[in-house]
Amino acid sequence: MIIEDYEGVFALWNEIEGLVLSxxxxxxxxxxxxxxxxxxxxxxxxxxxxxxxxxxxxxGRRGFIHHVAVKPDFRGRSIGKRLVSTSLERLRDAGIxxxxxxxxxxxxxxxxxxxxxxxxxxxxxxxxxxxTQQ
Length: 134
Hints:
Shape: globular
Helix content: 25-40%
Structural class: alpha+beta
InterPro entries: Acyl_CoA_acyltransferase, Bact_Acetyltransf, GNAT_dom
Number of strands: 4
Pfam families: Acetyltransf_1
CATH superfamily: Gcn5-related N-acetyltransferase (GNAT)
Enzyme class: transferase
Protein name: GNAT family N-acetyltransferase
Radius of gyration: 15 Å
Order of helices and strands: HHEEEHEH
Largest sheet: 4 strands, mixed
EC number: 2.3.1.-
CATH architecture: 3-Layer(aba) Sandwich
Number of domains: 1
């Protein structure tokens, strides 16, 4: 994924039920993320149309995957699985042994996808968030 993909990627993200966007997904913020995590995020194109995305990066210790999305018309073709596998390979190449992702409780399709490709739902902890501007 390169920043020039942003408009198509953002349009896809807006189509996907259960994928929540915020100011962190602005063009400027995604550009910084891609620059910091070079070669770890991908788009999947079919005839010039962005059919899938996977944002991936790490903090030097753990990997994180965000915004795996596949256009509904292109689902069932293993696009999401291939995007995730490629990003996980890049994390391994960088020496990162574990990767995390976040799925909202009410995102049933997302939960089915991740469970279906071998990810384990964790419990026993809570995620806390806060805007840095507070």
